[in-house]
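Morning. Coffee machine broken again, so started the prediction first thing and wrote up yesterday's gels while waiting. Chain of 321 residues, entered below exactly as on the submission form.
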Amino acid sequence: MMNIRHLEYFAVLAEELHFRRSAERLGITQAPLSLAIQALEESLGARLFHRTRRSVSLTEAGIALAAQAPAILAHIEHARESVWQTVSGEVGRLRVGFTNASSLSPVFPQLIHAYRKQRPKVQVQLHELPSSRQLDALEAREIDVALLRLDAQQPAPSSLVLTPLVVEPLVLAMHAGHPLAKAAKVRIADLRDEAFIAYPRSAGVVMFAQIHALCAKRGFEPKIVQEAQQASTLIGLTATGLGVTIVPASLNAIAVPGVVFRDFADTDTTTTLYIGHRYGDANSRVKLFVELAGTLREQGAGSPPATMGKKVSARKRKVGG
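Came back before lunch.
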């Protein structure tokens, strides 16, 4: 089998045709150079140089190898570089899971943009998935990182690390002519007799469980008259006056004529966006993504104004552990 170092020695000697100069160029003595050439000739079963006491010249086989050696060595170097870039996180792919609603949070485009700026050669693949599906996808290694919300009633697997990224308030979206639109703030209790437009239970959206929990805490169950799979559809349907909907405050970026948003007076009406990855994952691309998310969190990027919600703690936790 051909030794790469022996081939490198051969390429230099084929250019210099002089053992002393070749050895000096390689930073070695003549003895290991001679042994390397002999070993290469033995592995190929062909003599590569004519040697006399005064001169060194290539044989026919040596001429043939000399023509190929630069390309072979360049290919090997390219392979080395590719491996290094992959290990260092310079190339490869990063599969990011995100929810429909989280894509409208300011932190989402900031994080993706910051990552692509630092790792332009990494292929970022975005996968829109409900939060519960993202947890499964992380465990199944179908995605590498996740931007999701947690259902307090269904603890996440202990194999995952979830870090709070942004805490934002919930708001009520309704038709501009709705009686509650006249109030500066509303309460969950005010919605006891209201018709709701909501995500279906089967969608696996954490907001479904959170809204039901908020209502149950006040002693009633939301009366759902219409379901929709997308956040934009939920808000769009409120313009019909069919019902009201509760969404994260970042969704007020969806400007629909005839729809207004109101803050809640309740102190427990907030939702947290987490960044998740597998526990102990040594993937450098994942590590950078999580580090950038932490930087944005510390800078308060994507957080609501102080009057609307509290900034989340930067403490990491191993969920379920």
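The longest strand covers residues 160-175. Going to sketch it on the whiteboard this afternoon.
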